[in-house]
Specification:
This protein is α/β, with parallel strands linked by helices and 347 residues long. The chain folds into two domains: 3-199 and 258-344, Rossmann fold (3-Layer(aba) Sandwich); 200-257, no CATH class. It contains 14 helices and nine strands. The protein has helices at 3-10, 26-29, 95-104, 119-131, 143-158, 173-184, 200-208, 214-228, 241-244, 249-256, 260-265, 284-293, 316-322, 332-344; strands at residues 20-23, 40-50, 53-62, 68-74, 109-113, 163-171, 189-193, 271-276, 298-302. It has a nine-stranded mixed β-sheet, with helices on both faces. Helix 3 links the parallel strand 4 (68-74) and strand 5. Helix 5 (143-158) packs across helix 6.
Length: 347
């Protein structure tokens, strides 16, 4: 296990090559109907060269004689890969893969990718480091790395003449990354799905307050205040070392610089904020807070949708099971709403 992987795991908030052709009949398997079910979708590997390594992803491209919209899908926190899966859970849920397939059935191309330290990208970077006898140090990874990588993906897609417009879609932590990316590289639109509307400092305190003693909670508050001020903390109690160990602190410092309500307020392009009503990780209040940050944004609440974009009731056992169940379709209303929003965007 690489240190990059460990770093991306500590803050999980629960927590061109061979080509294959796939029929868009998958849209029926995804639980919704549309008028494009006979359209063929091409899926193929896609890569991005960066100064510090190659990133790997998947391009889903509807066959079309004309230019089509494209979305850049940015996955959420922890070791979540391009398909929305994580080794933290018993099995895959394929949420982002199913999302891409659903959009493709509506004539919308997409790129989803493995971030640094994750999936194929993580393995490739580790192999490259071994060949050059270098070490991937977690203190060298920052939140800005994720932003810069996504900006490069966006620019690559903007330069591709097959695409008519570019929409950035960020899921969970990927939403905050996407807000900054959409602004920096001039995307045509931005979509936030199941995203926190509070700064990281507030989220961490909210999640640990019921698990820590009063003294440890006070220490956590002090450490977070120091990190938010850009200062590292040398003395960390053993009980808090997994989250605040010195090698992880630079990443947390870089993440704490960004407040989602402030970042979303900077966006002047069309913005859609989507939140499921049975999401057990992110509150409805978070979505409303984001909407207040950008009054021109559209807020969409999807009844019965949970954090991994599936229709699941508010029952603990069914919620947990859905995180490892690829047979559950992505909520049809999400596919329909995103398709309408993206297809209305003009490049």
């Amino acid at each position: 296990m690489t240190k990059y992987f460990l770093l991306t795991a500590i803050v999980m908030l629960i927590t061109l090559g061979d080509m294959s052709i796939a029929s868009a009949q998958s849209s029926v398997q995804n639980g919704f109907l549309n008028n494009r079910t006979t359209e063929t979708v091409i899926t193929q590997p896609i890569s991005l060269e960066t100064p510090t390594g190659t990133l790997y992803g998947t391009l889903a491209l509807p066959q079309s004689r004309s230019r089509v919209p494209v979305v850049l899908i940015i996955a959420g926190s922890g070791p979540t890969d391009r398909d929305g899966n994580s080794p933290v859970f018993k099995g895959p849920n394929n949420s982002l893969k199913l999302l891409a397939e659903g959009l493709a059935a509506h004539g919308i191309a997409s790129v989803r990718y493995d971030k640094r330290g994750i999936g194929e990208t993580g393995k490739a970077m580790q192999l490259a480091a071994e060949k050059t006898k270098t070490v991937l140090r977690e203190e060298d990874l920052s939140f800005e790395n994720f932003i810069d990588d996504a900006v490069r993906w966006g620019k690559q897609l903007r330069a591709d003449r097959r695409f008519s417009s570019l929409t950035v879609i960020g899921h969970s932590e990927g939403s905050l990354i996407g807000m900054v990316v959409a602004q920096r590289m001039g995307a045509n639109a931005f979509v936030s799905i199941a995203a926190a509307g509070r700064p990281l400092q507030e989220i961490i305190l909210d999640q640990v307050k019921s698990q820590l003693t009063p003294d440890l909670l006070k220490t956590t508050e002090h450490i977070l205040n120091q990190l938010a001020a850009g200062k590292t903390v040398q003395s960390v109690p053993n009980d808090l070392n997994m989250l605040f160990r010195p090698s992880a602190q630079p990443f947390l410092i870089s993440w704490l610089r960004y407040d989602p309500t402030k970042e979303i307020s900077k966006l002047s392009m069309p913005v859609l904020i989507v939140q499921g009503t049975t999401d057990m990780q992110v509150r409805l209040a978070d979505a409303k807070r984001l909407a207040d940050g950008n009054p021109s944004a559209k807020l969409l609440l999807i009844e019965g949708m949970n954090h991994v974009l599936k229709t699941v009731p508010n029952e603990q056992d069914k919620q947990v099971a859905s995180y490892s169940d690829p047979s559950l379709p992505v909520t049809p209303d999400l596919i329909s709403a995103l398709s309408r929003f993206v297809n209305e965007i003009r490049g």
